[in-house]
Amino acid sequence: MIHIQRKMGIEKMKKTLGVLIIASLVITAFFLHFTEQQSSVDNSAGESAIDFDLPALDGTPTRLSSYKGRPIILNFWASWCEPCENEMPELDKFHKKYSEDVVVMGVNITSQEMSEQSVRDFVDELDVSFPVLLDTEGVFRNYRVMNLPTTYFIDSNGKILDNYSGELTFEMLEQFKTKLK
């Protein structure tokens, strides 16, 4: 009798294991399908920057393509990111010096913040003067932002010239600016 119960238990475990394997294969296929579709959107050098429409901190709708004709430095950041905090004064200094030549835009990964107020407090504390957009839509995923800060350099035709993941200095921004002309 014990032998039969043990055999039935083993059969039940095999069925459960089979169901788990099939479920994991279905989940993997689903993930690969959507990852493949998302990666078909190219955001590498030479490609057009992916357009978006996000609200600025003051509520003004801002569309990336509305800046076509001007080079853009598009910086993805978050208030809890220490390198972002270190970089923000450098970006602001660059914006103040070169605002006639280059548009500097910050895109806050708002969906990863404690609150929108924490973004406002961060911007106020650092006295940021360039436009800050609130990404509640997940635009950062389209740009494949994996690390913060990440910055894209977009020419006046809306083409991506380069991107940089990590903290930028004023001098580095000036070097990238020479490519933007």
Structure characterization notes:
The chain has 181 residues and is α/β, with parallel strands linked by helices. The chain folds into two domains: 1-40; 53-180, Glutaredoxin. It is built from five helices and seven strands. The protein has a five-stranded mixed β-sheet, with helices on one face. Strands 1-2 form a two-stranded antiparallel sheet. The protein is elongated. It starts with a helix and ends with a helix.
The largest pleated sheet is described as:
5 strands, mixed
Spatial arrangement of strands, main beta sheet: 5-4-3-6-7
CATH class of the largest domain: Alpha Beta
Mind telling me which CATH architecture of the largest domain this is? Answer: 3-Layer(aba) Sandwich
Quote the CATH topology of the largest domain.
Glutaredoxin
Which regions have little confidence, pLDDT < 50, spanning 5+ residues? 23-41
Q: Which secondary-structure class do the elements indicate?
A: alpha/beta
What string, H for helix and E for strand, traces the elements in order?
HEEEHEHEHEEH
Q: Mean of residue pLDDT?
A: 85
Task: Provide a count of the helices.
Answer: 5
**Fourth-level CATH superfamily of the largest domain:** Glutaredoxin
- The coarse silhouette is elongated
Q: Number of folding domains? A: 2
| Amount of beta strand | 15-25%
Compute the number of strand runs. Answer: 7
Query: Helicity, in percent?
Result: 40-55%
Cα radius of gyration in angstroms: 23 Å
